[in-house]
Amino acid sequence: MTVKTLTINGELVSAREDETLLEAAKEAGIHIPTLCHLDGVGDVGACRLCLVEIAGSNKLQPACVTKVAEGMEVNTHSDRLQKYRRTIIEMLFAEGNHICSVCVANGNCELQDLAIEMGMDHVRLEYQFPQRTVDTSHDRFGIDHNRCVLCTRCVRVCDEIEGAHTWDMAGRGSKSHVITDLNQPWGTSQTCTSCGKCVNACPTGAIFYQGSSVGEMKHDRGKIDFLVNAREKKQWNF
Question: Which of 151, 211, 204, 142 is nearest to 178 (CA)?
Fold first, then answer.
C-alpha cells in the first residue's frame, strides 16, 4: 500500500493512503479532540470537533473522514479552531440539559472532559431547556435524552459490531433524537440483545445501567476494542 508523507503542525508524518487525518495524527502522537469518533466503528463527522485547517483550502475539514494526501499541510490547533471547538461544546451544553452534578457519568464523561480541555468556564449562549424524555423501560439499561449529544455512537456500534441495528435517528434539527426500533420504548424492542455495547460506547451519561447513581457510571471501552480486534484477526467466527 502506498505511503503518503504530509505535515501536521509543522511535523513530517507518514501514513498509509487509506488512513484519515485523525488516524495519522493519533499515530504521530498529535491529539485532535473528537466526540463522535469511536475506534472500531465507522466515522460520520457528526460532532465537527476534529475540524482542521488544510493549506490551500479556506474550508475546514473534519479529520475523522478526510483521507491523507501527499504533501498535505495540516494545522490542528490554531486559535481559530480552538474558538470553534469551544463554541461547539457550549452549543451542546446550551441545547441539552446537562447537569453534571447529578449525572451518572459525572467524572467519567467525554463532554465534561472536552469542556475542561477547551477552557469552558461558562456558556455564553442562551440555554434552550428542551423537553426531553427518559426511557427506563428496559430491564437492565436506561436512556436519558437530556444528556444525548447525537454522536450516533450507539447507532453505529449496534449496527456494525452487534449487527442488531436496534438504534437509529429520527427527527430534524433540534427535534433530532435517537430511537429504538420504530420509535418504540426500549423495553419492548424485539431486536435488542441486551449486550450493553451502546452503554459502553456512549460518551456521556445518556445511556446508563439501571441503578447507577451520581458519578457511578463507568464506560468500558476495552470490551468494544476486544471484539473489534478479535474480528479483524479472525480469532473466532461471528
Answer: 151
